[in-house]
Amino acid sequence: MRQGGVHNFPAMDRVIYGKSASQALKEEASRLNAKRVVLIVSRTLNTKTDEIQKIRDALAERHAATIDGIAQHTTRKEAAEVALQAKDMKADLVVAVGGGSAVDLAKIVIMAMEHDISDEAGFDPYPMGPNMSQSPFRAPTVRQIAVPSTLNGGEYNAAALVTDERTKLKQIFIHPEMMPVSIILDPSLTLHTPTNLWMGSGTRAMDHGIEALCSPLGTPLADEVVLAGIRILREGMLKTLDQHDDLEARRMSQYGSWLSAFGLQARIPMGASHGIGHVLGGTFDVPHYYCTPVIMPSLLRYNQPFTEEAQKRLAAALGASGEMAADAFARFTRKLGLPSRLSEVGISPDKFDPISKIAIKHRFVQANPRPFKSEADIVELLHMAA
């Protein structure tokens, strides 16, 4: 039982579910009195489905522009370019429709708009210090709405991951009002999401819950909510695996992602799975949704002496009471057909030293429940995951 701490609540108005994305977004644009709505969307959803057209039709004269062709890893350059487009369109609301990349891009775009950032170097005056509760940014005048098509849950977070292509390092930018003002859950939108992305992003959502549960800065409320989320998410994902078009299973998976991300909403710092995952993705080009299945089992084993009680509860939520949480999680991700070793995502031992040199400085690696005393400890973990 946790003995003391602080639980934070996010700068978010609402999560909307049980309505189509187009209808819910029409109502939200009206509620917020938005006249110039810019959509940042998945190109697949925009060009190979009618989902984005339904949204444009619902918004009618409120629709100002649609921007697609989003990079998998959001970059400073892309953020600056899209912000300039949105300002030219006089956007008063930005809406992300798609996966985590679209959501992160929308978050950082509203800050680039606020601060007139027009290129990569424009972000240099706004470094994030070690205290993530403080932001160098002003509050954005324009807010954003997220309509996720994947499960990773990053929309429930006030931070954005942005890669500086000059150094190929993924950085965290944050302001409380980078949190979407609204999140819209529509399971029918997710029918177009590739299975490997759906399943991989679901493990990323679980990662949010696991790292909050194991964090020494977690809270009793977050513990109970994320455990429920992991349990619901597991059940929904397995049902989706059995039947791709099971909308109720997809709805259940979205609810599980929402609950699993409760630690993000409460600003509980993540741990080394996130920190190392940011290096694997931002610097070594591993798809973001593959980082958790290849790192988490080994990290759970590494953290076991410091998080024993949390891991017992995690194993139960994974349907494996009395087993090692690491074994239960690894078995689950293998059933989903996801990679389980670093070698399967192109990370060979010769890359372990460079990864460790970057990761040791990452704020989430430094917040891991079992401290890493040196780069050698990270290399040891990577060998466990090889």
From TrEMBL:
GO molecular function: alcohol dehydrogenase (NAD+) activity; metal ion binding
Ranges where the Alcohol dehydrogenase iron-type/glycerol dehydrogenase GldA domain occurs: 14-187
Keyword Acetylation applies: no
Signal sequence bounds: none
CDD domains cross-referenced by the UniProt entry: MAR-like (cd08192)
UniProt keywords, alphabetically: Oxidoreductase
Annotated InterPro entries: ADH_Fe/GldA (IPR001670), ADH_Fe_C (IPR056798), Alcohol_dehydrogenase_Fe (IPR039697)
Similarity comment: Belongs to the iron-containing alcohol dehydrogenase family.
Name of the protein in question: Iron-containing alcohol dehydrogenase
